[in-house]
Specification:
With about 325 residues, the chain is an alpha/beta fold. Helices cover about 30% and strands about 30% of the residues.
Length: about 325
């Protein structure tokens, strides 16, 4: 039973269009019907968190605010029949950390409908090493593998050193797929091959492919995390009846291509909405991530930090200099 009147949280404040962050003592608020109060054990750092902390109004409209779109911990107060006190739960995406105070805090209050029971074969640390990035990777792999099998050919993965990309490679390797990784970081070729990539292509090389409606068919499918020209060229390079999933637009939200890959090759483009993915599929993805898709790379490959190290890691992420997963331990 928590008896303290305040808890620690990473708060972002706005002052005349400038954004500053600090660790502050926050008061507890009343838990309403249908809500949970969770003592957070771990959170994780995602690109949306870094945007929120830098004042991106497309992510977070009002400040002061606590970012953190991921959290895992123990229910300390429940006003829902779905969970009881002492249950261990995961909360990812929905509005957490965007316009609802998020996981960069010792406690978080959320609707019970946002929570998933922590799978039995998964520790809290492992859950946050997976986090929204791993769940997005899992959703993408779920949709891709409905149609594309390992014997069909190589799967191309863009943004390969990022959280979603690197975890996708780990899952696909476990399932026996051949993998082609695309990265803008020439220094990380060895890192990607150690993750499980069979081939690594540099982003500049892939973006500079001659502009044609269709390209030589090379890949059975693709998991794209960046959008823009990279996604265009993946679509145009996919084999007949191939499947590409799309979950990000950090390169660009725009596509400049014809319908030829879709009507002449039967290629399918599937969008992945990790924020509002239906709970039935969310639970299925977590179960697979905790069991048949579980690998050391998926659950152990993370840098563990504390709240006072968060600002530095966010700056690296915004500048494209952070690789792999970063998790935050709440050990107050």
């Amino acid at each position: 039973m928590n008896t303290a009147s305040t808890f620690k949280a990473f708060r972002v404040e706005e002052h005349d269009d400038n954004y500053t962050s600090s660790i502050q003592d926050m008061p507890f608020s009343e838990v309403s019907e249908g809500e949970l109060l969770i003592k957070v054990a771990y959170s994780s750092l995602n690109y949306k968190d870094a945007l929120s902390a830098s004042g991106n109004k497309g992510v977070t409209r009002n400040y002061p605010h606590t970012p953190g779109i991921d959290a895992v911990g123990t229910v300390v107060t429940s006003k829902s029949s779905k969970f009881k006190v002492s249950d261990e739960v995961i909360v990812t995406s929905y509005d957490l950390g965007m316009n609802t105070d998020g996981g960069f805090a010792a406690f978080v209050k959320v609707p019970a409908d946002w929570a998933v029971a922590l799978p039995k074969n998964l520790s809290m640390r492992e859950a946050m090493t997976i986090g929204t990035a791993g769940l997005t990777a899992g959703m993408s792999v779920l949709r891709l593998t409905e149609t594309v099998k390992p014997e069909d050919g190589s799967i191309v993965v863009s943004g390969a050193t990022g959280g979603v990309g690197s975890l996708t490679i780990g899952i696909l390797r476990k399932l026996g797929y051949k993998i082609t990784a695309i990265t803008g970081k020439e220094t990380e070729v060895t890192f990607l091959k150690n993750l499980g990539a069979d081939e690594v292509i540099l982003r500049d090389e892939f973006e500079n492919i001659v502009h044609k409606p269709l390209l030589k068919p090379l890949y059975a499918g693709g998991i794209d995390t960046v959008g823009g020209v990279i996604l265009e060229n993946i679509i145009k390079s996919t084999l007949p009846m191939g499947v590409i999933t799309s979950c990000g637009n950090v390169s660009s939200p725009k596509l400049d291509l014809t319908v030829f890959p879709f009507i002449l090759r039967g290629v399918s483009l599937i969008g992945i909405d990790s924020q509002n993915y239906p709970m039935i599929y969310r639970e299925k993805a977590w179960e697979k991530l905790a069991n048949e898709w579980k690998t050391d790379q998926l659950t152990n490959a993370a840098t563990e930090i504390h709240l006072d190290e968060l600002s530095e890691k966010m700056e690296l992420m915004l500048n494209g200099k952070l690789k792999g997963r970063t998790i935050i331990k709440m050990d107050f």
